[in-house]
Write a structure and sequence with these properties.
By secondary structure, this protein is an alpha/beta fold. It has one domain: 3-Layer(aba) Sandwich (Rossmann fold), CATH 3.40.50. Helices cover 46% and strands 22% of the residues. It has eleven helices and ten strands. The strands form two sheets. Strands 1, 2, 3, 4, 5, 6, 7 and 8 form an eight-stranded mixed β-sheet that branches. A two-stranded antiparallel sheet has the order 9-10. A hairpin with a 3-residue loop joins strand 7 and strand 8. It is globular and about 45 Å long. The relative contact order is 0.14.
């Protein structure tokens, strides 16, 4: 019998073809410029000294290397599945004054491990939509566990409109890609479409905010940027939500 493939390995194989995703970033098809301009604004005014930033799904770190300039971030931990992207990230981060660590692993493995220091800012970019509903809950739980009180979770991702099904969203998204991502070939668009249809499970903005609230985050003034497909949210780690500690709530939900 054929062995069932691990979807995380297949995602890894897709993003190891880094030239394609790099083209998407360079042409700003997924609004990386607007998102990282907003991230820079948040980091520049963040009240912390010698801050540590954990970047999950860091890619080649070309955008975040600019976003951390002239901010109180001094230590950077980048995590990505793609070895090709991490090699480029190391090069892109050499021009910064950051203390840099780079790790090739999936984000859930990173967050579930005991070896992370306390984090001031956690950035997760276009990664959460690859996770199952249960894995998304685990992400928020462990993100809160590693963030210091008052720390920031800056999450950017694809998102569905209220009442929009996954199939409707993906059709709308791919129609937009075919109409506007004109610097890519039809073969490249088809490759992206195959990946999106198989691996992308975006949530609505309301679901993301509810997950954050359920796991120990304040969502006041959370939305920092959005078009009708991509968004950036700021969630602030708090000690308690409605008098129930996040870890206690998660344990109660499992019982």
């Amino acid at each position: 019998m054929p062995t069932e493939r691990n979807p995380h390995i297949e995602i890894d194989e897709f993003f190891d073809q880094w030239r394609l995703y790099d083209a998407v970033i360079r042409h700003n098809y997924m609004t990386h410029r607007e998102i990282h301009a907003a991230i820079h604004g948040q980091l520049a005014k963040f009240d912390v000294s010698a801050g540590t930033l954990l970047d999950l799904g860091c890619g080649d770190a070309s955008q975040i290397a600019r976003s951390v300039q002239n901010t109180p971030i001094t230590s950077y931990i980048g995590v990505d599945l793609s070895g090709d992207a991490l090699s480029l990230a190391r090069r892109n981060l050499e021009a910064t004054d950051l203390e840099v660590q780079l790790h090739q692993r999936d984000l859930l493995t990173c967050l579930s491990g005991p070896d992370l220091p306390e984090i001031d800012v956690l950035v997760a970019g276009f990664a959460l939509h690859h996770l199952s509903p249960g894995e998304k809950q685990q992400f928020f739980l462990n993100a809160h566990r590693h963030l210091r009180p008052g720390g920031l979770l800056l999450l950017y991702d694809m998102f569905r409109q209220p009442q929009e099904s996954r199939d409707t969203f993906l059709t709308r998204y791919l129609d937009h890609c075919r109409a506007h991502w004109d610097r890519l070939s039809s073969a490249q668009i088809d490759q992206i479409a195959q990946h999106i249809m198989k691996f992308d499970f975006p949530e609505t903005a309301e679901t993301l905010q509810q997950l954050a609230e359920d796991h120990g985050f304040s969502t006041e003034q959370a939305l920092l940027f959005s078009d009708d497909r991509h968004g950036l949210w700021r969630f602030t780690a708090v000690t308690e939500v409605s008098g129930v500690k996040a870890g206690q709530k998660a344990d109660a939900d499992e019982r």
